[in-house]
Amino acid sequence: MAGPANRVFISHLAGIAVFDPNGDQVGRVRDVVVALRIGSRPPRVLGLVIEVVGRRRIFLPMIRVTSLESGQVITTGVLNMRRFEQRPAETLVLAELLDRTVTWTKTGQEVTVLDVAMTQTRLREWEIGKVFVQVGRIGRLRKARGETLTLGWQDVTGFTLPEENQGAANLLATFDQLRAADLASVMHHLSAKRRAEVAAALDDERLADVLEELPEDDQVEIIGKLKDERAADILEAMDPDDAADLLSELPGEEAERLLQLMEPDEAEPVRRLLTYEENTAGGLMTTEPIVLEPDATVAEALARVRVSDHKPALAAQVFVCRPPNETPTGKYLGTVHFQRLLREPPYTLVGSLVDDDLDPLPPDTPLTLITSYLATYNMVAAPVVDEADHLVGAVTVDDVLDHLLPEDWREAALHGGPGEEQADEPDEREVTGGR
């Protein structure tokens, strides 16, 4: 947090840990809430948005913050667990101020906001005192196009004006290290306008990963605001089962149009998944399990398992089949689990290790039977095989959980899940006069 002891650049707060007086971590900072004021008066910092266990976002007033040093926030007192709801007079710094184009009053030039700094006044209050800017606009790839400088808040204007094409490079840089699920949480809490701008700034692979973690309504909203060609690219980058789930939420004509724009070899497994009933093995499965021929060695199998793109549940075993190796494969022979691979010499052929004691699942197996199958045999993934003994996919435990939970579980998780506070619980901003 470079600068004087009483100056903190907001981007440096993103994601840092928040501790209670006993030294126990209670959450992480996700944004800073400020109140813009009339004229050139610096905005007053009301508090921090903290993400606690269960992804619930709560409000922490600045008067309860005792320290902002050494890359951590120390708070005092009991946290109010009321879910944070942004009010009309409030502005979120990271979500709404970064990447804005404002005017440097001295020269009349357009400048892009890279960061803002809050400073502590003599009355121990915090306000936004400095703005770190770059002269000119910043493109999607955040290339430098001019000098950078730090200006006083009073030296810029335009923060209260609506902006149609606000970038997102600096917002994304602030959350660059977040997991896809955590970035999905950030995007879910943005306005629809900022959500679309962030989606436009993300590369295809990253946006695909994030979409898979968002509620269906957000997925449909975001994909609907992309140009058809890019939407098709995003669907290609998604796991086929997730792409099929998203397309099933779109009107039939729109879904078909996007499928037509996808590469045929990428669209084919998605089309196949769309033919199965939703809560069956065929509807839940992924079409991209790890498949090896029987003459592959243990060393080759372990090399495939180590590929970082594979989800843990899929990397827990390999499926041994006759060629072709892409689903639908040749004749399914059996499964070799990761632990067995670790116990065998590297030169051993996987065909000699297959576990063929368990019958694979037919594509029309209902969800209840899939659940009991995985639980009975302590498995994290199960093969799905058609009538001709071709492996067509694998159902993983995360796919099953996704469908066992209530339909709105992602939305509930992003809002902190069950256990909402009592409606008559006093709001921290009202009690402390933070409004």
UniProtKB/TrEMBL annotation:
Region Disordered: start-end pairs: 413-435
Pfam families (UniProt xref): CBS, MgtE_N, SH3_actinomycetes
Source organism, top-level taxon: Bacteria
InterPro entries: CBS_dom, CBS_dom_sf, Mg_transptr_MgtE_intracell_dom, MgtE_N_sf, MgtE_transporter, PRC_barrel-like_sf, SH3_actinomycetes
SMART domains hit by this protein: MgtE_N
Domain CBS positions: 354-411
UniProt keywords, alphabetically: CBS domain
Name by which UniProt lists this protein: Magnesium transporter MgtE N-terminal domain-containing protein
